[in-house]
Structure formats: structure tokens, C-alpha cells
């Protein structure tokens, strides 16, 4: 009885470690040598379109609404203390430091990560990946590498757009609707936001999240059981694992960047 | 879709994100103001600096002329020494000028108010590394309340 439980625990642990190992091997295979940006340009541009441009709409809309809600909620509390002038820093700092990178990563995992997993999983199920190997085309370099680079480069760009749109959305609600002074909104923001401390740290955060989400999505797809059920499970796992990884790493990064 | 059309869309996406970064860097963070300008340093000793922080503004009549560059404790006198970085375009304050730590609003941030002093032939102009002697400490609210209660008790 106890031995059975022990065996289950051991099997689960070994499976997890093997998963890490396979993900690392996949990553090493995809990144081996420098990226062939010139030769495989059409492949890369296609992925930039699928991963970046197609995610733009959801990022812009959510950024706008999150900025607007932040301004609305912040205003009700700040106006009690007569500190409406601090609405600008409140919106800008929470978006730059936390919400921009984290919410973008969560949306990116749902919008682009799940699509990557399903696409690669289906390629595996229909034996396209084995077919490529038969033709001496390395699927890691032809399929995985363009998607990896597209994800790692596009997500920080999306996070910046999200943050900028959110700050403009906060301006829309705070200044145009609730009547906070427009000059005060921007000048208090400029006095409190530091480029290196806030903007650059936010970009570093979103780059780390981009790497995490993309690697998890690609690994889950590449490692999926090649059946329709396996693909559906892999897609679910991508969203769940990537979201948890983002939130966990967010705490660690925040503690390192702003905790001290 | 043709590669050309995709390239145009991706190009628009990258241009949009560069515009977003420009907005964040210039309009939100105001990166161009501090650091690049020429500045000179002044020193001042206070009894108590309250909630003053590095990068707090130095104002003359409400105009920001510089920022607090460094705060440390004098190891012999046990008094805080504040290093001010003043923009070089404001380089003619007389040595009779005084400093006070003030608060913007009731709950706002603390800043240093510089009150320029009188000028006559014996008064020199402050230069790099000079020390301003006439300083007024921050008002600590708890001490003020304590004094008030003490006075009430005596009556």
C-alpha cells in the first residue's frame, strides 16, 4: 500500500524531470547555431504575423479597459484623501511594473500559446514532423525556432503597447471623464516614474515571461500524445502551466527588482 | 497571403510598438530631463531630514532647480548631510541663501525649498562643493503634536 503510493510519487517526479529534460533538448536543438533570419525569412515573417500582429487586437482592447478601470477605481480611493493628482503615477506605475507584463503574458498564453501548442501537436499527430525528418529537414530548426524567436521578440513589444494604451485609457477616464487636471496627470507621472527603474524593469520582466510562455507552449505541443485527446490536453496544460509559471516568476522578479 | 503583405503588417506592428516605447520613455518617464544636463553640487547639514529621499526636488519659489543627489550621516556629528545637484544654469545663488525641508500639501512628498539671500560686496556666490550653513529641518508631525499636548498640559 505505502509502496504503491511511493512508486506513484517516484514516477510522477521522474516524469516531471524527464519533461524538463525534453524541453531543454528541444530548446538546444532549436537554438543550435545562430538564427537563420536571412535564409528562412518567409518562415519568420509568417510567425511574427501569427504571433504578434494577430494578438494585437486583444492586447489593445484589454489594455484600454484595464487602464480605464484602474483610473476609475483609483480615483474613488484617492479622491477621499484629496490626492487626485496622484492618479497618473498610480496608473502608470501599476501598469509599467505589474499589469503590463503579467496581463500581457496571460493573454499571450491564451491567445498565441494555445495556438502554437495545437498547431505543433496536430503536425505531430498527422506525422508531418516525422515526414520532415525523413526529408532530412530538421523540424526543430524549421518549425520550432521561428516560433520561439517570434514569441520572445513579439511579447515584450505587445507588453509595451498594452502599457501605453492603458495609460492613455487612464487619461481618458481620469482626465476627460472624472475631471483630474491634465497637466497634473502627466507631470506627477513624470516626477514619479523612472526610466531605468520602472520602464526597463518592466521590459525585462516581459522578456522573461515571453521566453517562459513560448517555451512551455512549444514544448507541450512538441511533446503531446499524438491523438485528438492528447492535443486537447496539451493545449489546456499550456495555458495552465504557462499562467502559473508567469505568476510564480512574477513574484520572484518583483522581489528582486523592487523588493530591496 | 503574400510575404510582402505580411511584411507590411509586421512592419506596422513593430512601428506601433516603437511608438509605444517612445511614449513610455518621453511622455511617461521623462528620461531626457535629469542626468544629461550640466550640474554642480552643494552640501548642507540638517538636524532632521524627515522623509526626504534621493531624487527629491530642490525648488526656488516652486521652480525645480535641482535634485537631491545623496544623503548620508556625518560619522562624527551624527547629523545627516545632504548633497544637492543644482542645474548649472542657476549658478548665482549667494552664500547667504537658506534651505528648508518643506512638504507639498498635507500628505505630499517632501522637497527642499531654497530661499536666495541678500547680495552685497562681502557676499560670495555659491560654487561647486560649497556648503549652505543656514538650514531648517523638516517638521515632524509627531513632535509637533507632542509639543502641542505638552503646552496644553501646562495650562
Automatic annotation (TrEMBL), chain A:
The chain crosses the membrane at residues 48-72, 148-168, 199-218, 239-258. Keywords: Cell inner membrane, Cell membrane, Membrane, Transmembrane, Transmembrane helix, Transport. GO terms for cellular component: ATP-binding cassette (ABC) transporter complex. InterPro entries: ABC_MlaE_roteobac (IPR003453), MlaE_Permease (IPR053408), Permease_MalE (IPR030802). One of its GO terms (molecular function) is phospholipid transporter activity. Pfam families: MlaE. It is a multi-pass membrane protein. The keyword Protein transport does not apply. It is found in: Cell inner membrane. It comes from the Bacteria. Belongs to the MlaE permease family. The complex is composed of two ATP-binding proteins (MlaF), two transmembrane proteins (MlaE), two cytoplasmic solute-binding proteins (MlaB) and six periplasmic solute-binding proteins (MlaD). NCBIfam families: MlaE family lipid ABC transporter permease subunit, perm_MlaE_1. Part of the ABC transporter complex MlaFEDB, which is involved in a phospholipid transport pathway that maintains lipid asymmetry in the outer membrane by retrograde trafficking of phospholipids from the outer membrane to the inner membrane. Probably responsible for the translocation of the substrate across the membrane. This is Intermembrane phospholipid transport system permease protein MlaE. The gene is mlaE.
From TrEMBL, chain B:
GO terms for molecular function: phospholipid binding; phospholipid transporter activity. This is Outer membrane lipid asymmetry maintenance protein MlaD. The gene is mlaD. InterPro entries: ABC_MlaD (IPR030970), Mce/MlaD (IPR003399), MlaD_Phospholipid_Transporter (IPR052336). The lineage of its organism: Bacteria, Pseudomonadati, Pseudomonadota, Gammaproteobacteria, Chromatiales. Residues 39-117 form the Mce/MlaD domain. Pfam families: MlaD (PF02470).
Amino acid at each position: 500500500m505505502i509502496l504503491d503510493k511511493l512508486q506513484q510519487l517516484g514516477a510522477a517526479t521522474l516524469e516531471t524531470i524527464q519533461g524538463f529534460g525534453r524541453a531543454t533538448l528541444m530548446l538546444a536543438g532549436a537554438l543550435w547555431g545562430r538564427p537563420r533570419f536571412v535564409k528562412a525569412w518567409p518562415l519568420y515573417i509568417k510567425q511574427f504575423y501569427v504571433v504578434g500582429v494577430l494578438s494585437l487586437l486583444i492586447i489593445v482592447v484589454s489594455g484600454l479597459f484595464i487602464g480605464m478601470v484602474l483610473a476609475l477605481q483609483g480615483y474613488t480611493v484617492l479622491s477621499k484623501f484629496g490626492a487626485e493628482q496622484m492618479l497618473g503615477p498610480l496608473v502608470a506605475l501599476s501598469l509599467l511594473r505589474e499589469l503590463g507584463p503579467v496581463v500581457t503574458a496571460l493573454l499571450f498564453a491564451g491567445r498565441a500559446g494555445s495556438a502554437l501548442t495545437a498547431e505543433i501537436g496536430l503536425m505531430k499527430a498527422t506525422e508531418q514532423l516525422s515526414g520532415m525528418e525523413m526529408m532530412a529537414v530538421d523540424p526543430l530548426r524549421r518549425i520550432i525556432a521561428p516560433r520561439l524567436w517570434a514569441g520572445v521578440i513579439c511579447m515584450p513589444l505587445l507588453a509595451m503597447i498594452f502599457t501605453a494604451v492603458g495609460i492613455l485609457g487612464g487619461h481618458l477616464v481620469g482626465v476627460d471623464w472624472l475631471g483630474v487636471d491634465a497637466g497634473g496627470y502627466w507631470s506627477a507621472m513624470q516626477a514619479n516614474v523612472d526610466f531605468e527603474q520602472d520602464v526597463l524593469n518592466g521590459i525585462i520582466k516581459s522578456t522573461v515571461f515571453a521566453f517562459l510562455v513560448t517555451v512551455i507552449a512549444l514544448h507541450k505541443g512538441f511533446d503531446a500524445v499524438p491523438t485528438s485527446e492528447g492535443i486537447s490536453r496539451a493545449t489546456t496544460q499550456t495555458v495552465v502551466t504557462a499562467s502559473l509559471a508567469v505568476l510564480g516568476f512574477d513574484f520572484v522578479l518583483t522581489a528582486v527588482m523592487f523588493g530591496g | 497571403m503574400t510575404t510582402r503583405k505580411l511584411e507590411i503588417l509586421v512592419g506596422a506592428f513593430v512601428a506601433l510598438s516603437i511608438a509605444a516605447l517612445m511614449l513610455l520613455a518621453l511622455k511617461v518617464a521623462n528620461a531626457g530631463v535629469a542626468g544629461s544636463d550640466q550640474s554642480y553640487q552643494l552640501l548642507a547639514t540638517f538636524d532632521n531630514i524627515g522623509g526626504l529621499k534621493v531624487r527629491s526636488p530642490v525648488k526656488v519659489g516652486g521652480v525645480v532647480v535641482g535634485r537631491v543627489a545623496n544623503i548620508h550621516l556625518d560619522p562624527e556629528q551624527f547629523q545627516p548631510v545632504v548633497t544637492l545637484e543644482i542645474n548649472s544654469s542657476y549658478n548665482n545663488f549667494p552664500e547667504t541663501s537658506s534651505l528648508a525641508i518643506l512638504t507639498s500639501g498635507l500628505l505630499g512628498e517632501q522637497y527642499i525649498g531654497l530661499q536666495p539671500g541678500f547680495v552685497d560686496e562681502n557676499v560670495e556666490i555659491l560654487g561647486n562643493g560649497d556648503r549652505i550653513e543656514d538650514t531648517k529641518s523638516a517638521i515632524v508631525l509627531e513632535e509637533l503634536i507632542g509639543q502641542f499636548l505638552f503646552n496644553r498640559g501646562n495650562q
